[in-house]
């Protein structure tokens, strides 16, 4: 969430510059979607935003703070997520071959968020553009077309070498 907040602030600064400059094109696109996030779940209709705001670390970081027997899970999750694990949740983490995934499942359930995958999804990602030439980015595009559009707008030649040989 903090990464998204920082990205949002960077976009805000870039847009402020482009609005004043009137010659800068700002393009924002992701290379893929991950997770297939659904907000509200487990028979609830809204995420537990308060819980998310109290988190100080990712599940990955918390898993890295566990001792070898993972017996300090209750203390670690309390410290970084500000939640009291139930005995069942504590046992799930302690028995997990992948404690990061176990922690993330618990945190997601507590936050009322669901996931379709822990990997990339097949969902299209948003594409935003502002400034001169922004109209060239409307509609659906293959992500590999974006540098071609940008090169064309800058009047630069573009040759995609798909063989991986950059001679």
What does this entry look like structurally?
- This protein has helices at 2-21, 49-54, 59-64, 73-81, 87-95, 99-111, 146-154; strands at 26-29, 38-39, 113-114, 127-130.
- The chain starts with a helix and ends in a 13-residue tail after the last helix.
- Mean pLDDT is 88; it is low at 162-167.
- With 167 residues, the protein is mainly α.
- The protein is elongated, with a radius of gyration of 21 Å.
Portion in beta strands:
5-15%
- The whole-number mean of residue pLDDT values reads 88
Biggest sheet layout:
2 strands, antiparallel
Point out poorly predicted stretches. Answer: 162-167
SSE sequence, one letter per element: HEEHHHHHEEH
User: Shape, please?
Assistant: elongated
Give a count of the beta strands, DSSP E runs of length 2 or more: 4
What radius of gyration results from the CA coordinates?
Answer: 21 Å
The percentage helix is 40-55%
Instruction: State the strand order across the main sheet.
Output: 1-4
Structural class: mainly alpha
Question: Span between N and C termini?
Answer: 40 Å
Number of helices: 7
Can you lay out the helices and strands and say which pair or pack?
Blueprint: H1 2-21, E1 26-29, E2 38-39, H2 49-54, H3 59-64, H4 73-81, H5 87-95, H6 99-111, E3 113-114, E4 127-130, H7 146-154
Antiparallel strand pairs: 1-4, 2-3
Helix pairs in contact: 5-6
